[in-house]
Design a protein that fits this description.
By secondary structure, the protein is mainly alpha-helical. The protein folds into 4 domains: about 150 residues, HUPs (Rossmann fold), CATH 3.40.50; about 160 residues, HUPs (Rossmann fold, 3-Layer(aba) Sandwich), CATH 3.40.50; about 45 residues, no CATH class; about 90 residues, Arc Repressor Mutant, subunit A. It contains 19 helices and 12 strands. The strands form 5 sheets. A 3-stranded parallel sheet has the order 1-2-3. The chain has a 3-stranded antiparallel sheet with strand order 4-5-8. Strands 6-7 form a two-stranded antiparallel sheet. Helix 7 links the parallel strand 9 and strand 10. Helix 9 crosses helix 11, helix 17 crosses helix 19 and helix 18 crosses helix 19. The longest helix has 23 residues. It binds one RNA strand through helix 4, strand 7, helix 6, strand 12 and helix 11.
Length: about 500
RNA sequence: GGCCCCAUGGUCAAGUGGUUAAGACGCUGCCCUCUCAAGGCGGAGUCAGGGGUUCAAUUCCCCUUGGGGCUACCA
């Protein structure tokens, strides 16, 4: 029981859920599922200004959408709650009082201006800007006078001098820091809210977290946290700092690198399976050469030992490639559901269709299955089925219709079509065969003019797929229109 | 500036004191094919630089360079 592995994912609900956060969550989740441990979802909302219930919900929704569940958290409770930091204020207070009483922390009355001046001065002497301990030993009189002046103090942690702090990290090994490089840091803000570096320690300790797996940006803060663990007599957890996800230019992923939030990818119609698969491969590699993983397979294969130390660039091409696999796995029904919002947005449908029209839409949409990486690409992939008033894509395309054999081919095609009662891939194929046979023309001379006349385009799906979907009438109308437009002939 | 982390092709990456240095994405050639895509078969492309240690370094150590993070009453 006491050997049970307990992990946590502790996001700040301060904005859209970042893709990097999703990866941290995923790694924690994988480790928890792999080891049969527990995963705690804790909300770190001590930044009152920026935190909101709305982004808290967004984060949880995104997590659920990705298929990452948790065993304890704000919404489901657990034995170590509450799971929202602003609801744990009394807990922090007890420890702060203890630290104060033991002389391990002290009140600091410095104003922003004073602190800023200190930083400036240190910077001017090209020294590391850090708090020099001005309020470390205030007399009763000084304290009283500050209080009379109405100053609200912060609480600072007294950083012991001359100590080495060794952070044992699962992915980086032992990382050594000198306590002298760290100034006395604020653990409780003047409004009584604890800071991140302080609250996180008390929470992780009280929630019995055994492994703290988080992004590398927290590594430099870890020695501070270790100091707090030690001062409070808590055992330190095992740390594991996973590298950051970078944009193409190798700087931290930000808005200018395109979509950075899980929500954005969701809206573009990426599959959660694709995102999870891709994220897992960013900073982790399996023993095998496998690239496509279900989440269950990831659980089996995952290991912290194979987590890379170096930061990884977010490669959208690879995400697209992976996601394409998942698009192809979809049934016609699933694929249609994925396409629907995008089709509606582009005006290709209203969402109210039923009967034959709906069935037709499903078939049309499904033709793009092999061709798209994510659902937002579907409308343009099937645009040709909707636009009867297309233009030729370029002169090369219209030139195809001026080839010598075109009138013969078209006449024959029309004649064949006029005899048809129903139209499907098989009999369309038969028509083409017949034309080829009797005219002795190569496939290209038969197909390409028909393709261009039908779609205005030299590229696209198989004609045997397009024609049945357009139906006899539209097929004839389109070809007739194109031939007239190109001035070739009228039929 | 100080402290810390990181460094194998364009990208994700495997790997080892002696290897022809995997694989995938992307790029590219060929095949298939009316076309595109897919698919199949190929190709180009990497150990950042400099010093050590060693019989032997991509691998171990140091330095440089580059990138990143932290240095907040943000997390």
């Amino acid at each position: 029981m006491d050997k049970e592995i307990r992990l946590r994912f502790a996001p700040s609900p301060t904005g859209p859920f970042h893709i990097g956060g999703a990866r941290s969550a995923l790694f924690n989740w994988l480790l928890a599922r792999k080891t049969g441990g527990k995963l705690v979802l804790r909300i770190e909302d001590t930044d009152l200004e920026r935190s909101s219930r709305e982004s808290e919900e967004n984060i949880m929704n995104a997590l659920r959408w990705l298929g990452l569940n948790w065993d304890e958290g704000v919404d489901i409770g657990g034995n170590y709650g509450p799971y929202r930091q602003t609801e744990r204020l009394n807990l922090y207070k007890q420890y702060t009082e203890r630290l104060l009483a033991e002389g391990k922390a002290y009140y600091c009355y410095c104003t922003d201006e004073e602190l800023e001046a200190e930083r400036q001065e240190l910077a001017a002497r090209s020294q590391m800007p850090r708090y020099m301990g001005k309020c470390r030993s205030l007399t009763k009189e000084q304290t009283a006078s500050y209080e009379r002046a109405g100053r609200k103090p912060t609480v600072r942690f007294k950083v012991p001098a001359g100590r080495q702090i060794v952070v044992n990290d699962l992915v980086r090994g032992d990382v050594v820091f000198e306590s002298d490089g760290i100034g006395d840091f604020v653990i409780v803000k003047s409004d009584g809210i604890p800071t991140y570096n302080y609250a996180v320690v008390i929470d992780d300790a009280l929630m019995r977290i055994t492994h703290v797996i988080r992004a590398e940006e927290h590594l430099s803060n870890t020695p501070r946290q270790c100091l707090v663990y030690d001062a409070l007599g808590f055992a330190r957890p095992v740390f594991g700092h996973i590298s950051l996800i970078l944009g193409k230019d190798r700087t931290k992923m930000s808005k200018r690198h395109g979509a950075t939030s899980v929500e954005q990818y969701r809206r573009l119609g990426y599959s959660p399976k694709g995102i999870v698969n891709f994220l897992a491969l960013l900073g982790w590699a399996p023993n095998s050469e496998q690239e496509i993983f279900t989440i269950e397979e990831l659980v089996k294969a995952f290991s912290m030992e194979h987590v890379a130390k170096n930061p990884a660039v977010f490669d959208i091409d690879k995400l697209n490639w992976i996601n394409q696999h998942y698009m192809r796995q979809m049934s016609e029904e699933e694929f249609f559901e994925a396409a629907k919002p995008h089709m509606i947005e582009k005006g290709c449908m209203t969402g109210q269709e039923d009967g034959e029209k709906l069935a037709w839409l499903k078939k049309v949409v499904y033709t793009s299955k092999e061709h798209v990486a994510y659902a937002a690409q579907i409308p343009s992939a099937v645009a040709m089925y909707f636009d009867d008033d297309f233009d030729f894509e370029n002169e090369q395309a219209s030139a195809v219709l001026t080839e010598e054999s075109v009138p013969t081919v078209m006449k024959m095609l029309f004649e064949q079509l006029s005899h048809m009662e129903s139209i499907d891939a098989a009999n369309v194929k038969g028509v083409f065969k017949h034309i080829q046979k009797t005219t002795k023309l190569g496939g290209k001379s038969v197909f390409m003019p028909i393709r261009v006349a039908l779609t205005g385009n030299q590229h696209g799906p198989e004609l045997t797929e397009i024609i049945p979907l357009l139906g006899l009438e539209r097929t004839i109308a389109r070809i007739r229109r194109s031939l007239e437009k190109a001035g070739v002939m009228s039929l």
